[in-house]
Write the structure tokens for this entry.
Amino acid sequence: MKKILTAALALLLLLALSAQFLVSAAEPPESGSAIPNGDESNTSAEVSSDVSSDESASSIPDESSDTSSETSSDTSSDPEPEPQPGEGDTPFDYIDGYLYGLYPRTTVAVFAKMLGEAGGELTAPDGSVLDPSSNAYVVNGTGAVVGGNFYFVVIAGDVNSDGDVTATDYLLLKRHFVVPGSKALSEVALRASSLERTSVPTPSDYLKIKRYILTGLYDLVKNEPIQCTHEKWIDADCEQAKRCALCGKTEGKPLGHNWLAATCTESKRCQRCGKTEGEPLGHTYKPATMTEPKTCIVCGATSGLPVAQQSINSMLRGDPGSTNNHGTVVVNNTDYVIPAELLQKLSNKITQANDDLSFYVVDLNTYATIGYNIDREMNAACVVKAAYCLYVFQQIENGNGSLNEKLTFEARHYYPGSGTIKNSSFGTTFTLQEVLYRTIHISDNCGYYMLVDRFGRDGYNSWLDSLGVKYLHLLRSTSNWTSVSTRDLAIIWNEIYSYYQTGSSNAKIMFQYFLNAQHNYLKVQLPNYQVAHKSGWTETSFNDAGIVLEHNDGPYLIAILSSDPEGNILCPLARYLDEIMLDYFNWLD
């Protein structure tokens, strides 16, 4: 047993010496030292030293202690710098030098906050530096430094670079496709247009942008639809069910129309929504009586006058009329409505005349009237001659004078202007018929003065009063000129036509003079028509009035007074009024 213990101790000593030898071989000796080979004492010292080292080593901390020592040593040197914030620290995407992911209507201040520490200087598209606290919108093409790199901001849908997405952006993009080259879009605008984040938008992009504008149900940044929450509903109406104002989803059924039956003047009509169907029933009249006008047996509406009042002059005097209709053309004694297209023509002339205009049309059979400012007093000019010549012919009819009577042209009859008698010597004689002819046919001023001198003013003025004429009176002893209204002219021309219908030889002569009167501005616009008329003009007036005979449904009376000396109002207006009368006669049929 003792031998075994001795052998074990020897083995341990051998292992220790071997380990020390290996350590010595791995670590070179210090400078100047040497380990002689075969020196036993030195070996003993080396062994002693190794043991001492081992003992020292036994007092050194374990591996964790070594790590602590190493850490302590590292702390004494400069630390590694912290990594700087970059693009990955922001909520945006960066593609080809462009920043994507910012929604429309984002302010500069909010954008700067979203960039955080990664953000740097922000610049407007023109290069000017933006205030990072600004409440202005970030616009498409804004510059942004992020993580030390520069990017252009792309706001999806912001084609015109105003920071918002509106109908303007949609239209610009649509034009880009529909009219190529009409207005080139910039690179950044094209990228804003492409919801796939490329430089080439597609037609589907502008449809998505349109959906965003109309309903708000499209996310332009994520390029995906937004589920509608149905927060805005439109109530059901007669034809449509309750529906979502954004996506169009419906609930329930339409209400359906609540119809009111058609009447004489109105079509079948929904009392809920006002929609109409079909045509009015029209009046069913019973004839007029001596005391009552013709009356609809369905609704009681009346039209025209009682038989006892059905003389045209009575009707003309009773027509409501006005001195100023404020742009409104008035139709009376009929249910006829002027078509919008024809009415617009009249309105255009009223506007062109600055409302300084009067006209009156009367159907001599039905008494229907179309009028505008029919009581406005305007310069009569030579249309007064028609009234005075009618008065003279009626005086002759009653025995006061003869067509063969002789009248002498004297100095007091001279008046410049139209006519030929002025070229004759004072003392020249003319028959009354010749003076009447020249006064009507060529509007002879001297002939007119000769008539007034022969037949006077007082009887003429009283005659006008008996007819209910307001103006046209000759009230100044030194002048034979006066004023007139179209109502007055209508009364006079109805008297001219009524006198002609008596069939007397004098009446036929007079009417033939009016049919052949020169300066027929009505006939100029109504070619090939027979029009008995008398015109008149001055430096500030252009007038005409008469009877249009050409229509099978009956003649109509027309009178126009204007302050346009060139005829640019009267002549076209006469044609437009005739177009309306033709439409009226067709309506009667």
